[in-house]
Amino acid sequence: MADSITLNVNGQDHTVQADPDSMLLYALRNDLGLHGPKFGCGLGQCGACTVIIDGAATRSCVTPVSAVQGNKIVTLEGLGTIDSPHPLQQAFIDEQAAQCGYCINGMIMTAKAFLNENPDPSRDDIKQALNENLCRCGTHMRIVRAVERAAKGGQG
Amino acid sequence: MNTQPQDLHASKSSLSRRNFLKGSAGLVVAFTIVDPRMAFAAAGGDGVSVASPASSKLSAWLAINPDNTATLFTGKVETGTGVETALAQIAAEELEFPVDRLEVVMGTTSKTVDQGPTYGSMSVRYAGPQIRNAAAAARQALLDMAAEHFKLPAQQLVAREGTVSVIGAPANTISFGELVAGKQLDIDIEASGTGFGLQVAPKAPVKDPSTYAVIGQSVRRKDIPGKVTGQFTYIQDVKIDGMIHGRVVRPYGVGAELVSVDESGLKDIPGFVQVVRRGNFLGVVAETEWAAIQAAEKLGSTLHPEGPQSAQAKWGEWTGLPQQDEIWDTLRKTTGTNESVAAKGSVDMALPFAAKTIQATYQTPFQMHGSIGPSCAIADVRPDGATFWAGTQMPHQMRADMAKMLGLPEDRIEVIWHEASGAYGRNGLEHVIPDAALLSQAVGRPVRVQWMRWDEHGWEPKGPPIVQDLTGALDENGNVVAWRHHMWVPTTGDTRLVAVELAGLPEIGGEGTGNASITYAYNFDNADVACHGMGRVGLLTAWLRSPAQFETTYAMEAFIDELAAEAKQDPLTFRLKYLNDQRAIDVLRAAAEAYGWESRPSPAPQQDGKMATGRGIAWVNRDDVRVATIAEVTVDRESGEIRVKRVVVAHDCGLVVNPDGLRNQIEGNIIQSISRTLHEEVTFDTSRVTSLDWEGYPILRFEEIPDQIDMVFVNNRPEYPSYGGGEPSTCPTAAVISNAVYDAVGVRLRQTPFRPERVKAAMSQTG
Questions:
Q1: Which domains, ranges and CATH numbers included, belong to chain A?
Q2: Does the CB of B228 have a partner CB in chain A at under 8 Å?
Q3: Which tens digit of pLDDT belongs to each residue from B370-379?
Q4: Of B16, B44, B377, B496, which residue is the least packed, with the fewest Cβ within 10 Å?
């Protein structure tokens, strides 16, 4: 049942052997070693697995790998690194916007896709954009401030 | 004190530790992919001990590397609260070392001393002084080494920023790294006791707290850059060469017997390895994670299985859980212990003479930790040893538990710790370890197990339901003449392991008994505060942030508000009349000042319109920390929806190590406890938990967060010790919101969660 499937991730093509019905999350994490996207619920409810596909924030835990061949997939690793963080990642560092941080991938990727479409959002817009992402530590205030900071910097 | 470091290669200390120190430059990279042969060598495969280092050796706590970086070793673990950075600050302060060059190795049993589990807001409070003294001893040792180097008395030297200089001749400077020159700090510093009670380097010359330069600073957290870039390695991210994947298949009913397993079709799943069955413990193992998920699904691991016989694993009928809507009656009927918390005067004799007596019952449900990342562990169980990769809050205890389960000596077992998704207490992270162990033992390979969402929601230990009866009496002047508070509390400390129970193995851990977890501090003339403590009632229960005290504070602090309202007195003034605890008085006053509290009784004057606004106050003394919280809430009279708009917290945990870290933690506690107050209730039928995803167990979302959370730190001064700030600020929230709702609309909410339908029902009852 395993097929050769080519995925374009963070600007590069990768070929993986996978059940076409298997979910993108497992290919990213286990085959490509990209640990930014996280398994949270496997049900598309929490947002921890979010990646950006062709500009749209997408739940990789419920996206079959066969459905995204030829699409442009961006993961958290595709934004920046510890040594050279993306301005949005830097805003999360500046606001110290994480506790355990397990949800943060989803927060940043959802915010990234949102800011691309809405570069000058209000605080309520940001809350609405993140409303389907769950955080259990209660870091919400800082996450909102981090997205605001990035937007104000004009570099979301 | 012996200050001569021994050559690493001549050291007789454990091989693994020596190798670790030699290779520490590559440590961060090496964490991601671990060569199993290395793990085997490190885990006693050649008869080499992987015991923890001796707490009396300085090398057990600190290493100074040739490049003048340093490593702090601590048995404590990071759970998202920032304790890694706080403990690093404490060490850096005493060591006179730049905190950004100090790495922290946490939890791993072969590399760290057992300082007790990471729970109960006790890390900074108890592990802090242990690390402080070890670091002070290290500073003294380095000064002694420098004295030999410079041929000068140590008194003429000063340690600063990782170097030692000659006083008055700053050109004569040598770095710590040069002084230690690649050797291990094999120096005896004396230690006695264990865990929280461990006393380390009692003679070490610790600094005067008034001179602190690193403690008290909002040092940025060490872990956040990695966490926001995907470069951080959570336990869920660890990969071991040769590792395969497991999933558990839990019983349909909590106590159901496994009748049969139909394995047909499993072999058609590419990569399927085998089914593992031991008693009622059932799991699958496969070469890939996806195959393990597919195989487990066939056996019945799905979000909502239709029944005990609906999948290929057949379970017996089991309906041993209490009825959910009768759970509080069930508690009252359950036998247990009786604990008196306060007994003063005679409530029974005072009641007949009271001008007014009121009674109320407060009910709180099962709640869950609800970690965003389901629990995960990797086990490599071999005939003569075992290695675990785990995110547990108690690696050293889990080593002991696994030694017992596997029949192996503790020094042949290593628990390599990695941070997990936040746990907020004892969730599935301990339980997934024996799951992985049983699967690895069966297949003879390293097996990674991650729970599915429904495993975590269904089988993580819960916070227990609690019912509380209160009676209060006032005289004709509105003074409290009697106070009775009785509570029924199931265990918050059941440490028995799910897999061990399912497999029918000899018991590990214990059931525990519920206790009051309350600090009664009012000085009423007649008081009777008692707890009826029980073991397990229905579901497995263990500690969840501020165990039981979140609930008991709710009842105590809402009921005193009821008495204040009955007496038509301002709720703050009313509390202050009956308090002698100066720190409690100080936080209440500080919160009131920051909020702009105006003295008046509740409820607020009648408000017209759809939205009503109210304010509430409550406080707690949890483990020597005082917290007072005030909130402003709105109540939508039409929908019954409550929104918390503004929160003020006055917090006294003594000297604050990292102010921004504490603010982060308090914000988290406030938001999580708002969530628990407004939304959270585990649902179950007589067989099983039925709230198995985020639809069944909703938590607070972004659109519901407060506009503002302000904080005041009280007694944040060097003359006070640092108590733990991890969880106390959770406690007042339910009472604060209940009191604010009463202030807004005159309705008293005595049962959590305050979901809109319950609020509407309460409003309609009072008309």
A1: 3-76 (3.10.20.30), 87-152 (1.10.150.120)
A2: yes
A3: 999 999 999 9
A4: B496
